[in-house]
Design goal:
The longest helix is centred in the first third of the chain and has 11 residues. This protein is globular. Strands 1, 2, 3, 4, 5, 6, 7, 10, 11, 12 and 16 form an eleven-stranded mixed sheet that branches. Strands 8-14-15 form a three-stranded antiparallel sheet, with no helix packed on it. With 239 residues, it is mostly beta strands. It contains three helices and 16 strands. The protein is 11% helix and 50% strand.
């Protein structure tokens, strides 16, 4: 199977968990919605395109940052700062932000080939590469098509086993089948606008996954990247 493989590095990144405010927490790897949004933005898409993807990565540590959150309140009250000409009140509050430090990502994308070709071309021409927050710069180390092979693993032969020493999102059912333990996440995958052009999104489609960063694969079938010695599970629209 041929897929588009992207290898990138970010010095700092925050892949924000929904509903985290006073402490802005982060997923260990960018969720599917972040990568899909990034992909659609790079190809300048005007509609949704089906795709499947595999997200993997390693990082050095997580560091805490303190920032000032500026909010524009809807209601006016006593003692609030009023922004001239906008009729909105300004309030400020300190928040802690979790930043992943020195993260290396491997991302595998499966979609229509012409879309992947466009992504490969545009990734170096749209402003500067970033992933997650606009300020989270990304150094693109590799972007090209690669061939994946299907590999069968067995508990009876060490040569047919694989040690996971990198982070990867695996579907919950696959993790159960392969007896892998990790952190369970219900990751957003596809959204719908509440009202047209209002900018509000509701993720009605989510995928139960397990974030695994160590373990032994000694059973089941996986796609495999021989170049980087990694298992691949493509998750998404293509089954």
């Amino acid at each position: 199977m041929k897929v588009l493989k992207i290898k990138l590095n970010q010095v700092f990144a925050n892949y924000r968990k929904p509903m985290s405010y006073n402490y802005v927490d982060t997923f260990p790897l960018p969720p599917f919605s972040t990568i899909k949004g990034w992909f659609h933005n790079i190809i300048e898409a005007k509609e949704y395109y089906n795709m499947s993807l595999c997200i993997q990565g390693n990082s050095s540590s997580i560091v805490q940052d303190m920032q000032t959150m500026i909010k524009f309140d809807r209601k006016r009250g006593e003692g609030k700062t009023l922004i001239k000409d906008f009729n909105a009140e300004l309030s400020q509050t300190p928040v802690y932000v979790a930043n992943i430090f020195n993260i290396d990502l491997n991302i595998y994308l499966l979609a229509e080939k012409n879309l992947l070709e466009k992504f490969k071309t545009n990734i170096f021409t749209k402003n500067y590469p970033s992933l997650g927050r606009y300020e989270d710069l990304a150094r693109i180390d590799f972007v090209d098509f690669v061939d994946l092979e299907e590999k069968t693993f067995s508990p009876f032969d060490e040569e047919q086993q694989h040690n996971i020493d990198y982070g990867i999102y695996i579907t919950k059912n696959k993790a159960i089948d392969c007896v892998l333990k990790g952190i369970n996440y219900r990751l957003p995958f596809k959204y719908e606008n509440i009202k047209e052009n209002d900018g509000l999104r509701v993720f009605k489609e989510k995928i139960d996954t397990v974030f695994v960063d160590n373990g032994l694969i000694d059973r089941g079938n996986f796609l495999f990247d021989n170049q980087d010695n990694r298992i691949i599970e493509l998750i998404g629209d293509f089954k």
